[in-house]
Amino acid sequence: MAKRLYALGRWAARRRGRVLAVWVLLLAVAAGLGTVLGGKVTTEFSVPGVESQQAQDLLKAKFPQAAGGTARIVFAAPEGASLSGEKQRHAIDATLTAVAAVPGVVNVSNPTTTGAVSRDGTIGYADALFGKPADLVPQSAKDRLDAALAPAKKAGLAVELGGTVSTPPAEVGGPAEVVGVVVAFVVLALALSSLLAAGLPLVTALVGVGVGVMTVQFLSRFIDMTNTATVLALMIGLAVGIDYALFIVSRHREQLADPGQDVPDSIARATATAGSAVTFAGVTVIIALAALSAAGIPFLTVMGLAAAGTVLLAVLVALTLVPALLGYLGERLRPKSARPGASPAGAGSPGRERRPGSWGLAWGRLMTRFPVPVLVVSVLGLLALALPATGLRLGLPSNETQPAASTQHKSYELLTKGFGPGFNATLVVVVDSTRIPAARRESAVAGVADAVGKDPDIATVAPPRATEDGAITVLGVVPKTGPDDQRTTDLVHRLRDRAVTPVTDAGGTAYVAGATAAGIDVSAKLSSALPLFVTIIVVLALLLLMLAFRSILVPLKAVLGFLLSIAAAIGAVVWVFQDGHLTGLFQVAAAAPIACFVPVLLIGVLFGLAMDYEVFLVSRMREHFHHHRDARAAVEHGVERSGRVVTAAALIMAAVFGGFIFNHDPTVKTIGFALTIGVLIDAFVVRLTIVPAVLSLLGRHAWALPRWLERAVPNMDIEGDSLPPRTANTPRTATASELVPADRI
Question: Quick check: is 534 in a domain?
Fold first, then answer.
């Protein structure tokens, strides 16, 4: 592998104009397609095959009036007044008349006629039903809907919007995300000791992310895609794009510290050695993200493949565009102490220049000197952090978790206050009486309504709505408990087991659906798929790392460390978002179950990122052991040479992911926090602490491979043994621009 990457890096540096032109062209084409021909993303999380989705599909096909998007308009009277006052009633009527005129609205209810008013008469709601699903309602109609609320607001009423139509899309590019990129640049500048070198990874990462995200936007024209898929592609692509470029640039700068190192040869060697680590790490991330399809959930599959495609672009950028730009920069990236005319001490300093990686060497020696105490403290700390994960509860995002200042969150709170916590957990019983004789349909539906109403956890059952022929009937059911309550989950299972028997006995079919039931179904689907997914991840790690390091114990250690990182990260997520700690700091509107796909997504993404650090750190250890056969020195050397870069890479990823913690979308916020804490734990506790301690205890056994297996495993050569001899730098007079110190450019 190293030999081929060496040739690729040297070619890219020599043909840098062509390489740059190709990437600029790709970016322009992708931007054009994504901007002009981009499709629409959805905020709905559908899962074919589960009962709630079967009911939704049935309604779309045979009862579209009941399957369209809904805007729930919640009215609250001012203090000391009620909705029954003449002024308030006129304002509500005028508002609903304006709502009915919004393009796409097919029906509007009135709380004064339907009885949708709280007992004290201060809170009421009206439902505006659209003729198409929520994700197909255009923004222009949503804007008209907002404007239609003016009469009620002028009358002093509080008016808030809920329902499926009002769910806001996830957006990126806010101040927090920009701050994350700025922090990443500062870390790059400190790690590379050069502003010019620090800017290169940012530029190349933005090129890769631009091509990837715009392509995803274009593909959403043909594929059903949630808005979170684009955000995830941006988040992952930007983080790994910066890190992969950092690995290669830092290796190049390290080699150029030798005044005799030729620049083109250094670019090729950096691409061959650090590029091998990038390739292995990138392939691992790609396969891990693609493995999300094992869950059998389309929206999760699309999210994984979209992010995987962006990571693939990041790898290609690192192996081609980065060497090309390094070729353009030439001698400017050589450390100033190694430039022509520099004093041996570096820039004329009176003392000896501090050796790069000296703190890493000190840390590595500390880990190898006290491995047992380090292991005990680290493992116990991670297990303590993982404890909250034992109480993990999964669900789908609701309006309760929207920002506290948003109209969606306010409508949720008003409905809870006026009608009880169960009102926001409304279930829908869909009865398919197609196979029941027409004369028996009404009695069968009445039997279901009666059975549902007798359940002790049901508050009310709305009057049935049916198609003209009575074949499809919909019953609205309001539980006594909220959507996140375990009693509501038990209620859904109970209704499916017993309450629908009058219809099934008569030959029909009944479904328990609605947003709450959908959350329960998706969570169960993901929970059943999780063991297979984790198995795929573990086997993948063992095989890839065995290929990379030609060892059995190193892959086993890496997998165990990854499992510790995952457990601790999920524990931290539960502690903050589900248990409600530090909600003010992270601007969490309400403690609620974790979005059901977050743990699976976290496992896939964090696995790939953890292997980034594992490959880059341990490859330097194996490289030293391969040449010197000193196991302890190899561990210390690996931390010395790679510790600084791994630290910088982790801080960059944490900065990029951390910027998304303050995104208004609760799902993006949770994913951003999970990845941030997961990366920090894995990099600093597992890779830079536990890994050196374990390898020092294992000694030479860590790098052993049975002879029969050694013959079967191909040598991938990530250490660069097959590379040609180093090319010496031809003495010459440097240009004025090349003599400008890198840290001043």
Answer: yes
